[in-house]
Design a protein that fits this description.
seven-stranded mixed beta sheet; 20% strand; globular; alpha/beta
Length: 205
């Protein structure tokens, strides 16, 4: 897939105020400071599309971007640690959970995981929640350029082995680097394949 046009549409905290659910929608989420904004900018090839910050908790709303006038990319607030109040964290969790359960055109969730770390409870619990809700998702391991390829591979294997303890079928995964644009073609190709399948579905014939 070639991204020819990517533009910001809106930010809000209510699913009811999101754009009309007429296009496939792909949501990106992960623990705070996992490199989500950098990854989105790398995928769209626009450095300033998603706002990056060295401080966790920069994204606080549901942010919609329109890609090629044919699908939505959604930047969701991170889960896990961020320097915000407990009340704000509860508010974010409610907003995210409501979006994930109620957004009818949500096609797939990209769960971002920092490839430098061993399996984290927050990531595993979040993916377990998606599985229990029947929400399709794939994993994206970020920041692969921050360590050796062998170290990245070891951590990815650790995650998959940990998940295999409770999952009958493991989700698809991608290894990425926003700096080196690793994984860009693979992630976009996946989105393109899913969009094509949706277009060919009987309901769209």
């Amino acid at each position: 897939m070639t991204i020819q046009d990517a533009k910001f549409l809106m930010s809000n905290s209510r699913v009811e105020e999101c754009p009309p659910p007429t296009l496939p929608e792909y949501a990106f989420i992960g623990r705070s400071n996992v490199g989500k904004s950098s990854l989105i900018n790398m995928l769209t090839n626009q450095k300033g599309l998603a706002k990056t910050s060295s401080q966790p908790g920069k994204t606080q709303l549901i942010n919609h971007f329109l890609i090629n006038d044919s699908w939505y990319l959604v930047d969701l607030p991170g889960y896990g640690y961020a320097k915000i109040s407990k009340d704000a964290r509860v508010k974010w969790a409610r907003m995210i959970n409501y979006y994930l359960r109620k957004r009818e055109n949500l096609t797939c969730v990209f769960v971002l995981v920092d490839s430098r770390h061993a399996p984290q409870a927050a990531d595993l619990e979040f993916m377990e929640q998606l599985g229990n809700e029947g929400i399709p998702f794939v994993m994206i391991f970020t920041k692969a350029d921050k360590q050796s390829g062998s170290r990245t591979s070891q951590n990815v294997v650790q995650y998959l082995e940990k998940m295999s303890e409770s999952w009958d079928e493991l989700p698809r995964h991608f290894v990425t680097s926003a700096e080196e644009k690793t994984g860009r073609e693979e992630v976009l190709a996946f989105i393109g394949e899913v969009n094509q399948q949706l277009a060919q579905a009987p309901d769209n014939a």
